Give the backbone structure.
Amino acid sequence: MNDEVRFERQGATGTIWLDRPKALNALTHAMVRAMDATLSAWAADPGVARVIIRSTSEKAFCAGGDVRAVRALGPGPHPDQVAFFSDEYRLNARIKHFPKPFIALVDGICMGGGVGISAHGSHRVATEKFVFAMPEVAIGFFPDVGGGHVLSRMPSRVGFYCGLTGGRLGLADALWAGLVTHAVRTADLPEIADALTAGAPIEATLAAAAFVPEPGPIAARAAAIDRLFAAESVAGCLALLDAEVGDHADFARETAETIRARSPTSLCVTFEDLRRQGSLDFDDGIRLDHRIAWRILADHDFFEGVRAVLVDRDNAPRWQPAALADVDPVEIEAHFAVPPGGDLALP
């Protein structure tokens, strides 16, 4: 039994409770395995008609995967590191293809691994406290857990903006971008959950509680983002940002500064990943995530990024290479090759 994630059966409803609040529900390998095993059983159980996933934390749904534990295993790819990401990606695929309604009730922070266990379900219900981000380039990683699949399908080039900066979306922008299917208020969440658990009609229950938030700042800048991220490389996007004048000049300058602080290798990998993901189905996309993760575990920047941001917290990562111009295109292409063990086998 894993006490950091709990499972309840009430009538025809199965509920997953993320219950690691002090760590903002950062996903451990044990949590991933427990969820995957339970969802496999519930998918085959005719007595389960729907699944709800929610959090006991008032701050976060899930802030991501427990990458500090991954780093602690040392330079990779270590078998346990590969197993963690492989199992996590299989869980993401199971949620994507779950044969029954999968309802994520997201109240608060939802980043990285938290996106992987919510954004692929049939119903993504979020509150005014919702904060979305895929901030992996800040730790030398990339938007995995099916994040590339999601980002590459956002309107305009907003997904490229989010992927290359780690920029956050609030409720309104997430609804606009299609990440969220229903916007509800935090105060109404217990009543919504009780009704859904009791078997109330899903669509009618969510529609009755939904509201339309005021437009968000990213939607208002969508045309500018589309133009500023229209280049065919990270360097090209930076050139467009540097050249921006007028109403969006400050936004462009701040965005360029953010990008330049990220891992150059991660930026190039992420850009190429998003470029490819738009033409792939989910399964091929998650297999691509597995290829990239395997290679990144053999790189320097992931271990250095986790050290700087999450372990020592000096926020002064020493990237290798340190400059975008020094990134070798051959090295970037190697991240997309089939790993020695073959592609990820999906359930």
Notes: The radius of gyration is 20 Å. The chain has a mean pLDDT of 96. The domain at 1-133+171-215 is CATH 3.90.226.10 (2-enoyl-CoA Hydratase; Chain A, domain 1).
